[in-house]
Amino acid sequence: MSPSVIPDAAQDTANRQRGVIEVSQWLPGFWPGRNEPCHRLVVRELPCAVRDADLTSLLRRVASVADVEADALLPTTLLGADTSNWLRLAWLSTQWLRVAGMPIVGTPSVEALPQGGTILMLPAWLQQRRANPETLLRLVQWMHDLQSGTSLQSLVDPVSKWQEHLSRMAPAGSNTPRFVLAAQALGIPRLWLGAEIYQYGLGWRQRWLDSTFTESTPTLGVRMARQKVLANQVLAGAGLPVARQKIVTSEAQALAVAESWGWPVVIKPADQDGGRGVAAGLRDPAALRAAYAAAAQHSRSVLIEPHMPGRDYRLTVVEGKLLWAVERVPGGVTGDGRHSIRQLLEQLNNEPTRGSGRHSALKRIAFDDEAQALLREARLQWESVPEAGRFVPLRRIANVTTGGRPVAVLPDVHPDNAALAVRAATALRLDIAGVDLLIPDIAVSWQTCGATICEVNAQPQLGATTGPHLYQQLLEHWFPDGGRIPVVVVWGQEGARQLCATWVSELAARGIRAGFVDDHCHGMADEWREPWRNRLQAEWRLLREQDLHVLILVHGTCQWPQEGWPVAQVSQVVFSDVPETPHLPDTPTSLNPWLEVLSQWAPAEQWWLHDAAPASLRSALASRLPAGRPSVDADHLLQHCLNEWEARRALPPRTRTLSGGQS
């Protein structure tokens, strides 16, 4: 039984013009068997045959521009002739968006219609909801082009341009998609608020995240961290080891400072992070001039520092504890005594973890002027063969964005160095911070061997390479109860509305704030009541309320919400005075398809019969309700809701200690 949905009119018209999609319906809420927003497409037979050879060629072209292995886009099990061609193309489209960095959960599915045609369920990302259908249609067009004799080479440009388009639409860093996927794995509800800001958890259990910014991250702390001179002053004032700094406004001034202080020096933009425009280890005027020009492209304020000795570490601090630590090894190659530096770099760049895309775990290292300059300083050439074990740096800084490689070192961090990182984050009042530390050995106290805090990043990337587990670890820390609140669905008319009103008042008398949505209005406790224009938006509005404790949803008929449900799970389903006609079928068996759909969303163990339920509904539910469960009155149902509320309230929002951390 397929619930009715609202067509996306603009998209529907565009797709009809393309001739392969008859109906395009946008489902922003939750649907039976699906835990993500999706498009429900009614599609015709493909306008061309999908030959395995053509599909494989197109797959390899997409994989090449997406910088991934082909089986990351389409498993070999889907290349067989028995698989639906629509499913294969939809899978390729969905995976392409995912590897481009969009946090899409779920997989596509197909269902053949008895009268002909296919229903295709296509998962989507709310922020760019049209990306998947548009990508799918391009794949269909390219397959048609190949069937029509177009050469694969002629598709290089359009495929590459679409990859660039998808990358621009995706989040800038890896934090947002990884938090979304971690929340999905843990069953933590989430609501998209706009841009890259998500609400995790519902009502009073919620927490906002924008990458690693939280609602507790102070604006002043972020501003100070991004203004490197100001941050340096604050850290120095807190008694922490920092480098000497000076703002320079010209190449000549930078050169004069370097001559005065002595070489080598570091040039960087004064208000950027992520390694943009940073050049370290500059040893001569020519290198300084080039570095100054590069830094000036990123900022009007350019900073010069002495180059401090030591290995480069990133220490991630969360809520006053050291959560993770990595050593950032500069981009370069390690000799084996047999291959030239050029050959070693080619081998390194061919590693599957390295790519040129924004979301590649590690970046490729180019054969560029910076690498050439470092080789000259080491008295080496591209064809030199370094001895086994010799590391040849090809980058001056160790950021992953410039080709560096992170190595996890948390167990090795000396307690004094952990405390130093925590002090740096605390000095800037940051709840989450990435502290960049130069120190000879992270296992030795900085008070013994010396150290320098380079900078503090207020919105650090947690680490797609060494720390992918951190996203789930943090969400488990913030949401030990799963971030849920009691959500109750009541089916019925006037009796259901009276039941809802009674619950709202009784809960308010106990200090529990209940929101409600019925077929016409929505409101909060006894405080306000307003008509709604869009039911799903009204439900989401209430779930965003920070002091919402319980949500009650009243539905007058046994019909599925047109845009889906606001949540993927509910606590309780109550059947009250559902009208006998015209909405309730005359025979119990005719209600079974709708109950089957309902059971996919709310198991029958959560169903309750109110005393006001009609006889036909009681008969239909007799074989589905738990054995011996009678119909109950309003007081019994209220007590059931109160029991769940008390159970959830007994678990504080944060009880789980961050594992592996040092204070």
User: Major beta sheet, specifics?
Assistant: 7 strands, mixed
Radius of gyration: 30 Å
What would the average pLDDT be, to the nearest integer?
88
Could you give the distance between the termini? 56 Å
What is the SS-derived class?
A: alpha+beta
Q: Quick one: how many beta strands?
A: 28
Instruction: Assign a percent range to the helix content.
Output: 25-40%
Q: Numbering strands along the chain, what is their spatial order in the largest sheet?
A: 25-24-23-26-22-27-28
Quaternary organisation of the protein chains: single chain
Helical stretch tally: 20
Uncertain stretches: 1-17, 581-589
Query: What general outline do the C-alpha atoms trace?
Result: globular
Strand % is: 15-25%
Notes on the protein architecture:
The protein is 34% helix and 20% strand. With 663 residues, it is α+β, with helices and mostly antiparallel strands. The strands form seven sheets. Strands 25-24-23-26-22-27-28 form a seven-stranded mixed sheet, with helices on both faces. It starts with 8 loop residues before the first helix and ends in a 14-residue tail after the last helix.
Mind sketching the topology for me?
Elements: H1 9-18, E1 21-27, E2 38-43, H2 52-66, H3 85-99, E3 109-112, E4 118-123, H4 131-147, H5 156-169, H6 175-186, E5 190-194, E6 197-200, E7 207-210, E8 213-214, H7 219-226, H8 228-237, E9 246-248, H9 251-261, E10 265-269, E11 279-282, H10 285-296, E12 302-306, E13 311-318, E14 321-329, E15 332-334, H11 341-349, E16 354-355, E17 362-363, H12 369-377, E18 391-393, E19 405-408, H13 415-427, E20 432-439, H14 446-449, E21 452-457, H15 470-478, E22 487-491, H16 494-509, E23 514-517, E24 521-524, E25 528-531, H17 535-543, E26 550-555, E27 572-575, H18 592-601, E28 607-609, H19 615-621, H20 634-649
Parallel strand pairs: 16-17, 22-26, 22-27, 23-26, 27-28
Antiparallel strand pairs: 1-2, 2-4, 3-4, 5-6, 6-7, 7-8, 9-12, 10-11, 10-12, 13-14, 13-20, 14-19, 15-18, 20-21, 23-24, 24-25
